[in-house]
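User: quick one, sequence for these tokens?
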């Protein structure tokens, strides 16, 4: 019995050492194809990054993110939680500098507003963490972070909508601010989409001119959120999203080989805690990509059976 206890303890220490010293820095690029474009459309390469949780000393992570520019994405989507430390903005700016003038959109997570706090990790087994943005949280420089993204040419779609033309396809985006801290305003999405299309002379609702023989231009609609709560995913599908991008979960962060994630930190099913899946709502279906993210809280710097990742999604013709 004593020998068995020693072996179990040694295995636990080895797993912790691996997760804290090795795996959390084994960054990987996951590549998937998503058949959502109209027939005959040229592919669109979308780089999805999330949960950088950047601290100023994380040079390896910064350099790895910079290297992602080599995949030459047509679009970058950032699903929030960029900061892991009050002094992390310089690292974010350095890491993302190679994406200058690559079209992009972003939404915020809680760790774009307030800094992380030490907490008991076993509380996550009781359900999503209860984040309250009160006086005990360190306030982050969200305005400066937004300015970094604006200087890259990226568009803020927190509770807003935007459209871009990429490789011959009209891409509509709508996003929400972080649902985990109650900043999502789903009630604004309908109006944002209506305003977007009303101000677009080539909107599907107004084009082609009945007097012409032109075909409707190919359009794809993408919903974006930090935390993939079911009520948000359902709303995005109801608003016509064909693809939804999210982060927040860290893929479970500490997983059991052969079993998967133990927690999700929201109400999404464990089997959809990371990767590409389908989100069904009645007769409607959207592709859902949940990023396992690139960072962790500085107070819980460990990953196990869940490597930090970015995702390259190639949107293709259905």
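Assistant:
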């Amino acid at each position: 019995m004593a020998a068995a206890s020693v072996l179990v303890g040694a295995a636990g220490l080895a797993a912790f050492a691996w997760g804290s010293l090795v795996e959390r820095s084994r960054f990987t690029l996951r590549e998937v194809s998503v058949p959502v474009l109209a027939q005959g459309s040229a592919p669109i390469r979308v780089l999805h990054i999330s949960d950088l949780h950047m601290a100023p000393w994380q040079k390896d992570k910064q350099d790895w993110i910079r290297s992602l520019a080599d995949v030459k994405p047509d679009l970058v989507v950032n699903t929030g939680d960029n900061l892991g430390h009050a002094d992390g903005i310089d690292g974010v700016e350095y890491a993302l500098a190679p994406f200058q003038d690559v079209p992009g959109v972003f939404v915020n997570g809680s760790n774009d507003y307030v800094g992380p706090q030490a907490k008991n990790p076993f509380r996550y087994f009781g359900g999503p963490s209860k984040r309250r943005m009160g006086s005990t949280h360190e306030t982050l420089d969200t305005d400066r972070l937004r300015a970094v993204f604006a200087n890259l040419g990226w568009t803020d779609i927190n509770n807003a909508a935007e459209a871009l033309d990429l490789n011959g396809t009209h891409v509509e985006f709508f996003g929400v601010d972080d649902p985990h801290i109650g900043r999502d305003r789903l009630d604004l999405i309908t109006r944002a989409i209506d305003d977007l299309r009303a101000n677009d002379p080539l909107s599907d609702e107004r084009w082609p001119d009945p007097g012409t023989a032109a075909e409707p231009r190919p359009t794809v609609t993408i919903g974006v959120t930090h935390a993939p709560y079911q009520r948000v995913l359902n709303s995005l599908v109801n608003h016509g999203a064909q693809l939804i991008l999210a982060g927040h979960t860290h893929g479970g962060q500490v997983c059991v080989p052969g079993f998967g994630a133990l927690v999700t930190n929201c109400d999404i099913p464990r089997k959809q805690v990371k990767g590409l899946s389908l989100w069904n709502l009645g007769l409607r279906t959207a592709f859902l990509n949940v990023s396992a993210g690139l960072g962790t809280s500085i107070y819980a710097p460990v990953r196990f059976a869940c490597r930090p990742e970015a995702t390259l999604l190639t949107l293709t013709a259905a």
